[in-house]
Amino acid sequence: MLGALLERLREASGSYALVAHWTQGEFHHDVVLRLDDPPEGLAPVLVVATNCNGGIKEVLAFPEVPTRGALWKHRCPGNPEFAGVLPPVLGQARTVHWFDPCELLRPDARSELRPEHRRRQRGGGWEPIA
Questions:
Q1: Among 56, 45, 54, 55, residue whose Cα is nearest residue 20
Q2: Terminal CA-CA length for the chain
Q3: 85 burial class (0-12, 13-18, 19+ CB within 10 angstroms)?
Q4: What ranges in the chain are assigned the alpha helix state H?
Q5: Counting Cβ atoms within 10 Å, is residue 45 exposed (0-12), middle (13-18) or buried (19+)?
Q6: Residue 68 within a domain
Q7: How far apart, in whole angstroms, are the C-alpha atoms of residue 61 and residue 10?
Q8: What is the mean pLDDT of residues 63-82?
Q9: CA–CA gap between residue 42 and residue 74 (Å, rounded)
Q10: Domains in the chain, number
C-alpha cells in the first residue's frame, strides 16, 4: 500500500517531496517522489504506480523526474499520443497488482462512469466530465 511505502521512505531517507500526482484513466495513479537524502543504492526520484485503492502496482527509479508523456510512451510505445524521452530507468519493481497499463487506455476499457459523465483522456482512458 502507498501509505506503508511512504512511511518506509520517511524512515529510510528522512523526508521526500511530492513532485506530481498524475492519473491516467480511472484506475491508474502515478505518484512522483523526490527523496531529499536517498540512502545508498536508492535513486533520488521514484514513480510509484498505484491502483485506485492505493495498492502499489509498480515502482520505477530515476535519476531525475520524467515527464508524464515520456513515462507513458515507455509503457505504451505504440500509442502515438504519448511523446518524450525517458531518463534512464535505474530500477523497477512490480507487485502482484501489476498488469499491462495499456489495457486501461483502450476504447473499450472498463469504466465506473456512465458514458454521459465521462470523456476520453489524452492517450486513452476515461476521466469525469467536470
A1: 45
A2: 29
A3: exposed
A4: 2-13, 68-75
A5: buried
A6: yes
A7: 16
A8: 97
A9: 21
A10: 1
130 within a domain of the structure (yes/no): no
**Residue 9 half-sphere exposure toward CB, CA atoms < 13 A:** 25
The pLDDT value recorded for residue 112 is 93
What range does the domain containing 91 cover? 2-122
**127, part of any domain:** no
- pTM attached to this predicted model: 0.93
SS3 at position 93: strand
Cα separation, 71 vs 67, in Å, equals: 6
Beta-strand pair 118-120/56-62: unpaired
Residue 16 CA to residue 47 CA, distance in Å, equals: 12
Note whether residue 34 is domain-resident: yes
Average pLDDT over residues 1-19: 91
Question: Mean pLDDT score of the chain, rounded to an integer?
Answer: 94
Region 29-48: what's the mean pLDDT?
94
pLDDT at position 12 over 90: no
